[in-house]
Amino acid sequence: MKTIAYFDASHDFPEEILMAAGFVPYKIFGDVHKSNEPADRYLQAFFCPAARSFLTEALARSGEWDGIVIAQGCNSTNRHHDVWKRHVTTPFLYWFNGPSKDDAIALRFMKTECWRLIDALDRQFRTPVTPEKLAEANRESNAIKRKLQALSKLRGEKDITNREYLDILIKSMQMPKKEVSAEIDSLIKKVDARGPFPSNKKKMLLTGSDVTYPELMDQLDEVGFRIVRDDLSVGERYFATLIPEEGDPLEALARYYLTIPKPSTKVGVRKRIQYLEQALSESGLDTVVSQNLKFCEPFAYDAPLVNGELKDKGYRVLHLEREFTPGPDNQLINRLSAFSEML
Amino acid sequence: MNSKNNESRIENEQIRINTLPHARSIKWPMLWYLFVGQLYTLLPWKKTAWTCAGFPIELLWGFDIFPLHPENMATVAAAQKQSQRLIEHAESMGYSRDLCSYCKTNLGAVDTGIKTTLGGIAKPDIITCTNTICDTHWKWFQIQAERLKVPFFMFDCPKIVSGTDERTIEGYINYMVEQFYEFFEFVKKHTGRELNIEKMIRASDDSELMSSIWRDIYECRKRVPSPYSSAETSASFFPLVVLPGKKVGIKFFEKIRGDIRKRVERGEGTLSIGTERYRILFEGIPFWYRMRFMYDLARYRAVVTYEPYTYSFAPPKPISKNYSESLREVARIMMDLPYSYNLEKRIQYFEQAIKDYSIDGVVLHENLSCRPSSTGMIDLKNAIQDDLGIPVLIIQCDMNDPRAYSEAQMKTRIESFIELMEKNRHG
Ligand code: SF4
Ligand code: SF4
């Protein structure tokens, strides 16, 4: 099947348009196990290491993809586009400028941007997107989201490792939706058959920069933390809400992307705090691990304010800055262990 | 090459920048700015706004709202040797060492309540910004709006990446224009002010007058020897940032232009006759806590004759246009500032400036505080070297955080760069 890869700082890019045009959307996550040396020839070491890893992957694999879309999100997407344009070989490099706000004006702009993408795909690949095809893609996307919601609910009740949760999310954003749908079903089945939530684990909510590799999830598990809620894009933000299935599908899609739980890359820190408070209170949690990837500025700017408010409300919050590495980060593990003991 | 034997690159303590007779007059616009800003803050019926680089300040004048500039005040803190302690204070509040030092200087300044003359800033009535240049501007202003409980508005500027076609840009402009009307509503709601269109257009016309004087000054800088260098522009451009179009700034620029024209007539430069040897383009924000850096270059007979940073505050502004045409043009300028130029345009822009200003070498300040302006720098360096065959030096530092500056390392790097320019001169 034809694949279009995309670089998305959060959950900003309407992959459903690619699905409606007959492509498999593939979200680029890079590879933490590989050196960033190829990207470092063009991007300095004090830039977001995840974004550098995405470029490294694109330099190596762009030949396997029919095109690449970069969606407006943070300074990495916005400024690195031009570096990709100079160095990544692809027949189709497209800039999708989704809005940073979520009001009525932004909604109109989002719709225009969606139309522009549909038009560009059609001109490049002769793949017209009809309202019917888009409605179908929205439904298919919702079906995955519903299954992920069901799986997510089990996180507080059953024994699902942090790695399993991240793995299935990554697959949901990289594999053909039909295949991933079967994988989620089988994971839910497997989990259902397992025992209850392990008594030696502590439940917590994870917030901050997106986690794109499972080793960090393992480290959390090893120190005894289970993520039962989160507000990550490779997490709840991806499935917390559904695309409205009635009315104009394009309008519905645009509306959906503007109303999902807020990441730090979008205006509206108040809404982000509200989502976190709601998630904590509805699941009876009182523990938050907030982390940001080194050089990931949007989340680093938010952290003191967001964490401060949560602490003021009585939640126990640990904030960590982490490196982009699969190896054990001793400093991180020590801080997590100390926090765990304190609980 | 043995440095001691090469007269051209020996550091010579005697060679100095000859400052312009009216250089010190900069204090008047600065005092005016601080005094009037204070007045607007104290008088209950007057209104103020925090705003950032890239924001069309003429709009605020149209509402009779005084613009307060956290970035500018952060530079004042650095010049007054206060920035490090304010930055460290912000870090103790939980802000990462890797974040922009302007932002942290401001967070520290507000939290410690430091005096305006040392880089402090008053609480405004509204906070306005754009995301055209960087994430920092809006993330920082949003945080402060929350902390200070002040209404916040951000212009969401689409990004004109390399290859964006005109039709798409027109669509982006439509989005921006809609936001202007939203902004007018926002201002009315939170300050009770309505836009006085005539006042705004007048402010824009005056602003263009001020910018055009600055551009004249830049024309003169093309002359060899250069009559004016970044040692002076780094201070004198402030009226363009904080007081665009204000008479007090225009008068100052007229005096400076007069001084420069006299110099040009006499064939003199900012260095004594026969001394200028290397003409440098400096990209990036200067080191505000170490302004001597620009003066010290003179010791190597080097003069910074062009810096996109100070030039970028003087884009041609829409004049005598009707209201809606003006708004469309302002929208375009906001999205397409030299500081947010896409890489393809940035390379063209630099290469043209290098030719126009007879540049021998380029220094790129890779700013640890400023990832957006540092992005693409490696490509920029390679393109300039390949296309024009002149040396390009990347120096990693920070504009407001003195902890990033190493005297010895800087000296070594500058000296080898001078050596490279000298070699290049001899083919
Ligand atoms: S990790 Fe942060 S800086 Fe990096 S791409 Fe994602 S949002 Fe942007
Ligand atoms: S220095 Fe760079 S990151 Fe900081 S405010 Fe200025 S443009 Fe933004």
Description:
By secondary structure, chain A is α/β, with parallel strands linked by helices. Chain A has a domain at 3-127: Rossmann fold (3-Layer(aba) Sandwich), CATH 3.40.50. Chain A is built from 14 helices and 8 strands. In chain A, the strands form 2 sheets. In chain A, strands 2-1-3-4 form a 4-stranded parallel β-sheet, with helices on both faces. In chain A, helix 1 links the parallel strand 1 and strand 2 (24-27). In chain A, helix 3 packs parallel to helix 4 (75-87), helix 5 (104-125) packs across helix 11 and helix 12 packs across helix 13. The longest helix of chain A is centred in the middle third of the chain and has 24 residues, at 131-154. Chain A starts with a strand and ends with a helix. The mean pLDDT of chain A is 97. With 427 residues, chain B is of the alpha/beta class. In chain B, helix 12 links the parallel strand 5 (278-283) and strand 6. Chain B starts with 26 loop residues before the first helix and ends with a helix. At the A-B interface, helix 4, helix 5 and helix 13 of A face helix 6, helix 7, helix 16 and helix 17 of B. One iron/sulfur cluster binds at residues 9, 48, 50-51, 74, 76, 209-210, 265, 293, 296, 298 of chain A.
